[in-house]
Specification:
By secondary structure, the chain is an alpha+beta fold. It has a single domain (22-148), classed as Molybdopterin cofactor biosynthesis C (MoaC) domain (Alpha-Beta Plaits, 2-Layer Sandwich), CATH 3.30.70. The protein is 27% helix and 30% strand. It is built from four helices and seven strands. A five-stranded antiparallel β-sheet has the order 4-5-1-6-7. A hairpin with a 5-residue loop joins strand 4 (83-90) and strand 5 (96-106). The longest helix has 19 residues, at 111-129. It is elongated, with a radius of gyration of 17 Å.
């Protein structure tokens, strides 16, 4: 049964008032595939564009996005995140890996906040580098792990 559908098959926000407050964490990852011209610009690490440093700006944007998840996703509960950390690095192939980890003491999880943070950071990388190439691909966005609530989750083969 879907959690955001009531007994009359209507969309609804889940009532979490009866749940216990526990520590909830989530880790999401986005992968951004860069064409050769953009990879070359990142050869020394983060690059400066007319809009600013790409990775640092993406970290700030991703954090802002994670904090505003309930404004973007209709049935997400508004929660005050206790922590949000975004790390961005180039993998050995020269593509961008964005990891967003969120934490809260609450009645509901923070998976959507971690996924939103990673996706907004990825979109920011695209926006800041599109002047170099429009062949940038946001290839993957996934939940890597979560703890707290009914069950924990860890993706098979996650790094």
């Amino acid at each position: 049964m879907l959690s955001h559908v009531d007994e009359k098959n209507q969309p609804t926000m889940v009532d979490v008032s009866g749940k216990a407050v526990t520590r909830r964490t989530a880790h999401a990852r986005a992968r951004v595939l860069l064409p050769p011209v953009v990879r070359a610009a990142f050869a020394g690490g983060d690059i400066q564009t007319p809009k600013g440093p790409v990775f640092q700006t993406a970290i700030i944007a991703g954090t802002m996005g994670a904090k505003r998840t309930s404004e973007l996703i209709p049935f997400c509960h508004p929660i005050g995140l206790d922590a949000c950390r975004i790390e961005i690095a180039l993998d050995p192939a020269g593509d961008v890996l964005i990891d967003c980890t969120t934490r809260v003491e609450h009645r509901t999880g923070v998976e959507m906040e971690a996924l939103t943070g990673a996706s907004i950071a990825a979109l920011t990388v695209y926006d800041m580098c599109k002047a170099l190439s429009h062949e940038i691909v946001i290839a993957e966005l996934r939940l890597v792990s979560k703890t707290g609530g009914k069950s924990d989750f860890s993706a098979a083969g996650s790094r």
